[in-house]
């Protein structure tokens, strides 16, 4: 806010010491500090009153809620994409497993159809 460096403050303190003298300087510094403190209190009070009138708490809460809703929406989209990808992967794995299983089942059916005839002749003897 103020562009005052240490060297400028040192010059101001030196001038104040020369003008006021060492007897009145501590009392003056206390008075100035008191006024600065009161000014800060008034500014803080005015700011608080202004925020209450405008409804800053409600606005902050609404903005916070909107941010949470955006985050939830993004999370929902991410989860949906993950579920879709998982479903596709599961279908692919199922197809991969099903093809050899169907082939094995077909092979098992062919010998079993011929086996009962050969077992009958062996059982009949």
Compact overview of the structure:
94% of the residues lie in helices and 0% in strands.
List keywords for this structure.
125 residues, 94% helix, single chain, mainly alpha
What does this molecule look like?
The structure is a single chain. By secondary structure, the chain is mainly alpha-helical. Helix content is 94%, strand content 0%. The protein is rod-shaped. Belongs to the TatB family. It is found in: Cell membrane; Membrane. It is a single-pass membrane protein.
Describe the largest sheet.
none
Bulk shape: rod-shaped
Return residue spans where pLDDT drops below 50 for at least 5 consecutive residues: none
Number of domains: 2
How far the N terminus sits from the C terminus, by CA atoms, comes to 113 Å
Layout of helices and strands:
Elements: H1 6-54, H2 56-124
């Amino acid at each position: 806010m103020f562009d005052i460096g240490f060297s400028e403050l040192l010059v101001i303190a030196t001038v104040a010491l020369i003008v006021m003298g060492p007897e009145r300087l501590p009392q003056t510094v206390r008075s100035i500090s008191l006024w600065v403190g009161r000014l800060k209190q008034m500014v803080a009070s005015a700011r608080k009153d202004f925020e209450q009138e405008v409804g800053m708490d409600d606005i902050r809460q609404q903005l916070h809620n909107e941010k949470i809703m955006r985050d939830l929406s993004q999370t929902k989209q991410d989860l949906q994409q993950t579920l879709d990808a998982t479903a596709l992967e599961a279908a692919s794995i199922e197809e991969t497993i099903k093809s050899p299983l169907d082939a094995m089942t077909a092979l098992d059916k062919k010998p079993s159809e011929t086996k009962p005839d050969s077992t009958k002749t062996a059982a009949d003897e």
